[in-house]
Amino acid sequence: MVLKALNRFMWTNNKVFKSGKQDSLDCVLSAQPETIEHLLYNCTEYSVAIWEEASPITTSMITAQLGEEI
């Protein structure tokens, strides 16, 4: 899923709207245009949960690579 997001392969509401298959480009959680950037960084309902879950994993991976606490 991450690679799909990074390569803009994921179908967001914005992309579906532009293809003519949906009436709204807005995020159902925050009523702002749903883009990859919005979902990963700006959506207070979605991105916060992603980063809260990803943060400890990322920190432990970096700590393991460095061999010291960060």
What is the strand and helix layout of this fold?
Blueprint: H1 2-6, H2 13-18, H3 36-42, H4 47-66
Helix pairs in contact: 3-4
Q: In angstroms, what is the radius of gyration?
A: 16 Å
Mean pLDDT across the residues is 85
Low-confidence residue ranges: none
Binned, the helix content reads 40-55%
User: What structural class do the secondary elements suggest?
Assistant: mainly alpha
How would you characterize this protein structure?
With 70 residues, this protein is an all-alpha fold. It has one domain (2-66). The chain has helices spanning 2-6, 13-18, 36-42, 47-66. The chain is elongated. The two termini are 27 Å apart. The mean pLDDT is 85.
Identify the notable features of this structure and list them briefly.
single chain, elongated, mainly alpha, 4 helices, 0% strand
